[in-house]
Structure prediction request, 287 residues.
Amino acid sequence: MRALLVTHGRLGEVLVDSARAVALEEAPIEAMSNDAASAAAIRAGVEEWLGREEGPCLILVDVGGGSCGTAARLAVGDRRDVWILGGVNLPMVLTFVSSYANLAPQELVTKMLDRALNAVGLLGSHR
Amino acid sequence: MNLRQVRIDDRLIHGQVVVGCCGPLGVRRLILCNDEVAADELHSQIYESAVPSEIAVLILNLADCLNYLQTSDDVPAMLVVGSPADVRWLVDNDFAPRQVVVGGLHYGPGRNVEMWPGVFVGDRDREDLTAMMERGVGVVVQAVPAMGAIDAGPALKDAG
Prediction:
């Protein structure tokens, strides 16, 4: 199982570097930016990555309705062995890095979404 | 038509359009004019799903869009096209916008002259933009309304 982050700016690259630094794991995960790229170029980049290897994989995007999410969905088309997850955050990426080798694809996706969602919330307030 | 903006953007509907333009411009109807997207159901669904439910989305091919633009719809709307060629076709067929905004044209095959930081044109783009300006359409470069707009004419000339 491998993963590609498709994000605005350097967000994906920084998330991958941070996850690797925290987990001390080398995982099959790469980042791609939409910087200065047309919709066609982003889609072509995702298609090229998908075509490199066969087998299930994940695409993590920051904004589902943005150019990254749209390009990912168009590139994936009707493939059933590719999961696209939106709202990527560090807990989601960390979960991939630490669990990709041990879980089946659907279990991994569920765990990544759980961790990502559970990490979002109000931790404190100034009243 | 209550058109708040006519935008050229090769990414079509994306964050800059939905968040950066529709909100500040009070847009309630987003019209995507693109032959390829309009002919493909999956493609259309993906773009429709990128827009929050409070904004209606209309995806039309060029000919249908031209007809729609001649209706008297009062809903504040924004028209998005993917290239200068598409909006020129509308203008050549009697669509008369006061202004067209070049919001996003990225580097790519046949589009390699930077007319403004991050905004690229090719020969065909130049020809189409110039033709519209000659017909009295104001053409500006502006990523989102919160940023200043610059006149595309001098920028095209300076780009050589």
User: Anything to note?
Assistant: Chain B has a mean pLDDT of 95.
